[in-house]
TrEMBL record:
UniProtKB keywords: Hydrolase
Source domain of life: Bacteria
UniProt-recorded name of the protein: Alpha/beta hydrolase
A GO MF term: hydrolase activity
Annotated organism of origin: Blautia wexlerae
Length: 184
């Protein structure tokens, strides 16, 4: 059996394009158990504020722990964590704390994501992501041997000001996501 867990960002829930379409792909690739987490944080803007980022992480992590507490990960042959933004930190921390051997898809990971080891993962980022120092994220990804796909002029949602370009980016991201899901 295969399970996939989706960890959203603060303002990027599981019905937004990256997580919505990757969820559809996971279903197509035989993931029987699909868990789309939902959590809330109302602490205001956290970008650039280390203290607020830590508070947000702790609050969201606690919510994820509670939501996932009933799942017996031992019964699955394959586990996939798909995460966006701060969700990439939560997913990585959860996998490490619970010793879950999982594959991970990291959409717009933050630098704290790389405080955790990623053995089987891919990552995606835009060159205009205001949440990250992109070269730093690319270097951290390379250091962990996590393939990083970079999109020119794309923001934290992997979008630009050009709608048709956004559709091309989304298609490319989903093709790479599907290729990752079909490996093994």
């Amino acid at each position: 059996m295969k399970a996939a867990v989706f960890f959203p960002g603060i303002g990027y829930h599981c019905d937004k394009p990256l997580l919505y379409y990757s969820r559809k792909l996971a279903q197509e690739c035989g993931y029987e158990e699909i868990v789309a987490l939902s959590y809330t944080y109302d602490g205001g803007n956290i970008r650039g504020n280390e203290e607020k980022m830590q508070q947000a992480f702790e609050s969201l992590y606690e919510q994820a722990e509670k939501s996932l507490s009933a799942i017996d990960f031992e019964k699955y042959d394959e586990i996939l964590f798909v995460a966006k933004s701060v969700g990439t930190i939560i997913a990585s921390a959860y996998a490490e704390k619970h010793s879950i051997r999982c594959r991970q898809i990291l959409y717009t990971p933050l630098k704290y994501t790389y405080n955790f080891v990623h053995r089987d993962a891919i990552a995606f980022i835009g060159t205009s992501d205001p949440w990250s120092i992109v070269p730093e994220i690319q270097a951290l990804s390379k250091k962990q041997q996590v393939p990083m796909y970079t999109y020119e002029n794309a923001n934290h949602s992997l979008e630009t000001t050009d709608t048709l370009e956004n559709l091309k980016i989304l298609q490319d991201v989903m093709e790479k996501t599907k290729g990752f899901l079909e490996q093994k």
